[in-house]
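## tool: complex_structure
## caller: assistant
## args:
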Amino acid sequence: MEKVKILSQYCKSCNLCVDICPKKILAIGDKSNQKGYFTVVCTDQEKCISCALCATVCPDVAIEVYK
Amino acid sequence: MEKIFGRSKGLTDVPFSFCPGCTHGTIMRLIAEVMEELDIIEDTIGISPVGCAGFSQNFFSCDFIGAAHGRAQAVGIGVKRSLPDRIVFTYQGDGDIAAIGTQHAIHAAARGEKITSIMVNNAIFGMTGGQMAPTTLEGMKTTTSPYGKDVSTTGYPIDLPRLIANLEGAVYVAAVSVDSPKNINQAKKAIKKAFQVQMAGLGFAFVSVLSTCPTNWGISPVDSLQWLRENMMPVYQMGELKVTEEVKSL
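## result:
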């Protein structure tokens, strides 16, 4: 199961989560949401340590974290 | 697997209408989480002003009233005095509370009105297109100060929390920032305290939160956070500026 889940309808691809992720497993993807933003994707769920730093800095509350 | 982070019940399902990377959303999330943790969502009445903060009624699941520019505290005080058992908070930008609404901020604090005010300070008028605000830093370029703010004609930046901390009726005054996870957690603690102060009926609680405006500052969201740390934090006094003995014992 996904440890980090991006709620793509809220994402505005601001890059703050990509910058803060200690494992560098978040990236701007190639699919856009209905607003036209290319939303963030997690490239390797296995490496996620569920630290929730991405969700803490996300200004659009677009990330759910599971542990 | 257990969900350790998700959208708070204090927020509606509506996506924020702010620009990408604007930390208004972070501050709103913190307020929503605090309301949920204190179990006061249904008893809370928020007051939104004019500006980017004026959208807040769409995003919080508590009741909301839209006030005229700068008058959020005047409306909030009216609501609180007529419905003293409700929790009333105002959510205002610096262009609202530190410019057109300064008199209400000062007098609400002087009278010790039992409301909570959250000020979002991004040193600029965001919604109207990045004009100079009373909180704009010396030398900062805005659309109305294209050569940099000249303090000899337009004044020094107003540090409103420091001003309010001097007034007797204000019992809790804090200046926090949302530029890093550590500071975001500290900001949440300050906001929670400000709501607890009101629940205990102790007096006026004020929290100023430093925020970014990547669009009008003209820099990327990630660089904006760094700009805030380097330029705004040294100018504005940070931390808990005033905590009375009663508040400490909460």
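## assistant note: Chain B has one domain: 24-127+159-215+224-248. The two ends of chain B are 35 Å apart (CA to CA). Handing back to user.
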